[in-house]
Amino acid sequence: MSAPLYSWGRFPRSPQRGHSCVWLDDLPEHLDRVIGDHRSSLPYGNGRSYGDSCLAASDQVLHMRSLDRLIEADWATGVIKVEAGITLAEVLAVAIPQGWFLPVTPGTQFATVGGAIANDVHGKNHHVRGTFGRHVLSFGLLRHGQPELTCAPDSNAPLFSASIGGLGLTGIIHWAQIQLIPIRASQIDTSTVRFANLAEFFALSAELDDHHEYSVAWIDCLAKGADTGRGVFIVGDHAQYGSLEVGQRKKLSVPLTPPVSLINRLSLSAFNNLYWRAHPSQRTRGRSAYEPFFYPLDRILHWNRIYGRRGFQQYQCVVPQASAAPAMAELLRAIADAGQGSFLAVLKRCGDLRSPGLLSFPMSGTSLALDFPQSEQLENVVFPRLDDIVRAAGGRLYPAKDAHMSGADFRQAYPAWERLEALRDPSLMSRFWSRVIL
Ligand SMILES: Cc1cc2nc3c(=O)[nH]c(=O)nc-3n(C[C@H](O)[C@H](O)[C@H](O)COP(=O)(O)OP(=O)(O)OC[C@H]3O[C@@H](n4cnc5c(N)ncnc54)[C@H](O)[C@@H]3O)c2cc1C
Predict the structure, then answer these.
(1) Does residue 391 register a pLDDT over 70?
(2) Pairing relation of β-strands 136-142 and 188-195?
(3) Do the beta carbons of residue 70 and residue 24 sit within 8 Å?
(4) Which residue's alpha carbon is at the smallest distance from atom 44 of ligand 1?
(5) Is 401's pLDDT higher than 80?
(6) For residue 46, is it within any domain?
(7) Which residue, 337, 319, 313, 316, is CA-closest to 390?
(8) How many structural domains are present in the chain?
(9) Most exposed residue of 37, 292, 400, 420, measured as fewest CB within 10 angstroms of its CB?
(10) Ligand 1, closest atom to CA 120?
(11) 256 and 237 in one domain?
């Protein structure tokens, strides 16, 4: 029997049994068999969601990774058709040499295309290109006991829209057609500068975001007082000259899970301080290969193990622009007071391009994301305080990262949930959905 599957945060620790299918043609029968044996299931991509949205309520998932083929590619237009279990890294490996790149990429290239659609992921260019779902032309959807459907903006439109950000609940996406973006080189031209506080972050974002494809900031979540919100602002654009090289960085690996988390107040504070000081106080231009620019954490395989056996949770919220500055200051104060948080918290402005997805996470505003080792204090003290701030600011949390949000908060923040529930395939149910809806 294959090893149990988990979500990335390993919290909740609910081992999943993966049922793999190797050929697209066998998928309908495979789905019938799994549902017949276990009554309910859930598609599972590569488990890069942190919380419980990729965990089946039955703990029996349809593991999609073996469906990883490129079906068709038109290198004149950059339209590709792929099986849904292919990873973004595998797409880049064939697209880059042809002069094409993903239109939107999250901070890991190990997510699958199916997972990227089902969470409608966003990247450092949300302010320019919106979410992944905006670049999906069509996909195949398999619902239990029904003929296969092709979904596109003008074909089965309600299911197209519900499946983008649909958390795997509307059916199995088995193939997808995506529009890539042209590039001349695989390198990224960057400009980096550190900022002293939140006000400087908002000023840099207002000045630079409109002029660059990619924009992101790493912040020191433990800095207090006048230093609250200090960090490093990085913008980037695809280089206009260079080579078309697929990343081949050597990967390191965390070989085993220690019994307790290696992340503590001391190591966090020292690292964040060092990282901030290591960056230039003047704007500095540079050039980076695409992997360290987009996927710094992918360099270390199994890095999630450093949080120990209890696992960790990521907190990612987005707050509307009008309330972003005071809400972010309050959130950072609460996090610094708790003395918890991650090495690199990510702060980013989201743009106002609408997603076709019903339950897409980003909204025009500012998003904050950071990791916390799992603990009782986190659940009982830190998260409730952060949730109060986000709720009061009219913001919301990202289901792809979540393992704690209350049903009331979810339903308030995602009022279209009832439309998704109406289109859910009754044989598919996640731990997340049963937690926030049932
Ligand atoms: C280091 C790191 C950085 C990240 N950075 C970002 C970021 O910048 N932006 C962002 O948006 N996210 C980010 N994420 C989250 C990640 O991109 C998403 O959770 C993504 O959806 C994971 O894809 P997956 O293939 O692993 O899917 P899984 O995590 O396995 O599943 C995710 C969801 O997709 C559904 N699903 C999977 N395959 C299919 C399918 N074939 N058909 C239908 N439904 C399916 C599942 O049921 C589940 O609901 C990051 C994660 C990590 C670990």
Answers:
(1) yes
(2) unpaired
(3) no
(4) 168
(5) yes
(6) no
(7) 319
(8) 2
(9) 37
(10) 11
(11) yes
